[in-house]
Specification:
This protein has 86 residues and is of the alpha+beta class. It has helices at 13-22, 42-66, 73-83; strands spanning 3-6, 27-31, 34-39. Strand 1, helix 1 and strand 2 form a beta-alpha-beta unit. The two termini are 30 Å apart.
């Protein structure tokens, strides 16, 4: 379930940091009852960015397959792992 807090609660930075660290989900910040910002832990952010990179690579590979280009999956996987230190 998403966590939604008003912007005035950002004054307690330690509590916000703890809240972000306890969840992989972002914390939504509202201003005057409307969505204004989203914050998350660095770990959650890095995981999201990694997933976006994987999705982009998969989309690129699918385009190459549709275009008739041969794709060497093992080489592509090695490159992804090397890029992300896996």
């Amino acid at each position: 379930m998403p966590r939604i807090i008003p912007i005035r609660d950002l004054k307690d930075t330690a509590a916000i940091s703890q809240m972000c660290g306890e969840s992989k989900e972002p914390v939504y910040i509202t201003k005057n009852g409307y969505g204004d910002m989203v914050i998350m832990s660095m770990k959650a952010y890095e995981e999201k960015m990694w997933l976006l990179d994987v999705y982009a690579k998969l989309a690129e590979a699918e385009d190459e397959v549709r275009g008739g280009k041969m794709v060497d999956a093992r080489t592509a996987l090695k490159e992804l792992r090397a890029k992300h230190g896996l």
